[in-house]
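Repro:
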Amino acid sequence: MEPSKEIISRSPVKGITAVSPSKGITIGSQAPDFSLVDYQDQPFTLSSFQGKKAVLLVFLRGFACKQSQWHLDGLKEDYTKFKESKVEVAAIGQHSKVEFYNMWKVMGLPFVGLPDEKEKVAKLYKQRIIFEERGRLPALFLVDKYGSVAFAHYCSNMYDIPANDKLLQALDKTKS
């Protein structure tokens, strides 16, 4: 039986629906701005990308989760495609700077890793908490270069992560 979902808006890509808890981030809305320091002590502010490039925000469940590791590996595999499309990838998780450093080193991840130990950005973007699942469910947001949300997806389970090509299609739709 599939978990109940609240549809908040449809993606411009056929077959993708954004699901969310009540009052989630919606497609077409201005993305909430935030600043964090990455695991290498570099500042990251979402609004600093406006006018330059899009940003894919990937809210993780946790590093111990095999599906999260698989998802990170898939992002690494397609990172060149994201860069060619002028998309910065930023993974956000509740882990410490040291845990991010270790995971990025072990997996050889080329994109930004943002520790959000106090979960302030996860709360800002309303990343779902599922107690039975013992943590947060993944969420993805593609913010175009104007700061608008071009794609929003709150995963209903760990297998509900959209394919990278669907994210790139959503970005292409904003260009036309």
